Amino acid sequence: MSFDLVFFGGTGDLTWRKLMPALFQAFRHGKLPGGGRILAVARDDRSDADYRAFIKERFSEVEPSKRPSDEEFARFAELLHYRRMDLSQPADYAGLKAWLDERGADTAVLYLATSPHLFPVICEQLGAAGLNGPKVRVVLEKPLGHDLASAQEINRVVRSVFTETQAFRIDHYLGKPSVQNLMALRFGNALFEPLWRRESIANIQITLAESLGVGTRGDFYDRTGALRDMIQNHALQLLTMIAMEPPSTNDADAIRDEKLKVLRSLKPFTAESVARDVVRGQYRAGTADGKKVPGYLEEVKVPAGSHCETFVALRTEVQNWRWAGVPFYLRTGKRLAARDAQIVVNFRPVPHPIFPGPTLANKLVIKLQPEDGLELHMLAAKGSGTSDALAPVSLDLDFDKAFPSDRVGAYERLLLDAIAGRLNLFVRSDEQEQAWRWVEPILDAWQRDGSSLKTYAAGSWGPAAASALVARDGCAWAEEQ
């Protein structure tokens, strides 16, 4: 299948840090379809050769195992092309259309790796130039809007130009192999599904922790914050995959219909419940990896006195028959004690213990990063002496070791899916808008009450209030258990 893949924002950080390395890995693995061209567009004046040299230089910054040899890059670079474009000029879109029509590839994927405020103007210009035919797909990078109103406006413009099946709203967490295994775990095996309900599960915790600070992105991050950056998209998508009902098929809309039902079943927030069930924090100076690091307000390009949150922990419930009364705890933050993304499913304890010693409930840990795998924690007899006491043990499955030759990165998988037209791992507009609808009362409450911001030391696990949040239910975060 021949394809043309066009990156708007072709010289931006996302393109050279994430997208080009992912495409190279697909090329290296032999998974990129033949007959493809990759076109970067941006405002700079560059030749194809200049752009290829730019990407080669940037590849020196990726991790060593993913860097191409000179021979590999020379072959990959044959796919790379560059065009100068002013995104507000219709003539430049006409020139792009002529470039694409000259060869007439089977499909054209237009990836908007730009600021979201440019999405409407780009889509309108694409439509005016006739770059919205049935062979065209548009990929929209997150964050899709800043709030519900802006998201709805972006979606209105996108729908006026493209059909829903042509629009690929990307959330790179959905491309992680471990996240894909959530579907396999639940709907490809008979083991857990009978237990996947309120009668057996005490609570579910989703943690997306980062040990790094905001670095040089202080101006961007201060306009976004942890709630918009991680909870509204990544964390809620994980929650829907954990909580959804079994879809009737593996079809994209069957899956996304069930995810939407979960979002619509989330307990809505009020001003009172935001104060009670949401913790908002900002890191101050501390120690990370044995080194002293500055607080958020001392970071580059962060405005003085900013109330931007770098940490969020919240409690919610899915109000349906399967999950009624089961707390879901979501947590994310920067400058935390470790880089750790995981989902912990805590099962209820046995109803009547018969063995001496402490009784520990079973738990399933779904590890997303830095490791990728599953841990099942249980109790077993020691087999030593005459004591009946049990000891904790765990079954540990490392997916990278189980499937060493088949693992692909998140962006690699999603780019290949966009080229192939597979929508299963992309977000539908009604999902995305419902997620904004759910978080908006939190944003509104914070706008009214700046005093809700807590502080926490860099290198810790966040404000003490986050531990108190789960302790109210007699629970503890995974690292405190």
From TrEMBL:
Name of one Pfam family that matches: G6PD_N
Record pathway: Carbohydrate degradation; pentose phosphate pathway; D-ribulose 5-phosphate from D-glucose 6-phosphate (oxidative stage): step 1/3
Signal sequence range: none
Example GO biological process: pentose-phosphate shunt, oxidative branch
Catalytic activity: D-glucose 6-phosphate + NADP(+) = 6-phospho-D-glucono-1,5-lactone + NADPH + H(+)
Active-site residues per Swiss-Prot or TrEMBL entry: 234
Sequence ranges assigned to domain Glucose-6-phosphate dehydrogenase NAD-binding in this UniProt record: 6-181
EC number: 1.1.1.49
GO (cellular component) term, any one: cytosol
Keyword Glycosyltransferase recorded: no
Glucose-6-phosphate dehydrogenase C-terminal domain ranges (all copies): 183-477
Binding site for substrate: 172, 176, 210, 229, 334
Binding positions for NADP(+) per the UniProt entry: 43, 86-87, 142
Keywords linked to the UniProt accession: Carbohydrate metabolism, Glucose metabolism, NADP, Oxidoreductase
Family indicated by similarity: Belongs to the glucose-6-phosphate dehydrogenase family.
HAMAP family referenced in this protein's UniProt entry, alphabetically: G6PD (MF_00966)
Protein name (database record): Glucose-6-phosphate 1-dehydrogenase
Organism of this sequence: Ideonella aquatica
Lineage, top ranks: Bacteria, Pseudomonadati, Pseudomonadota, Betaproteobacteria, Burkholderiales
